Description:
The chain is α+β, with helices and mostly antiparallel strands. It has a single domain (2-28, 57-103), classed as Hypothetical protein apc22750. Chain B (Translation Initiation Factor IF3, 2-Layer Sandwich), CATH 3.30.110. The protein has helices spanning 31-43, 48-72; strands at 2-3, 14-27, 76-88, 91-103.
Amino acid sequence: MIIVNTPEVPGRKINTSLGIVKGSTVRSKHFGKDIIALLRTLVGGEIKEYTEMLEDARGEAMARMAVEAENLGANAIVNIRFASSQTMTTAAELLVYGTAVILD
């Protein structure tokens, strides 16, 4: 599955557009890691616990999007975008979406 954030794949022609596909996940960190993250905010710097959580969430959301595209018969997804939102004080949703296509 070719996945790009551009409207086309260089050197390939879009034969058929199959519509929007998406993948999402809602994540929350373990309470203990939340405490460590809170302490990190006091001293500054990267909050590695959340960086790892979001990296995992992006991978899972992209995999779910790819499965949805494969089920439609696509061999590529173009114009992908990410969005995130807080669903509750301790959890966030990560959404990825794009257009499933069949390339020549």
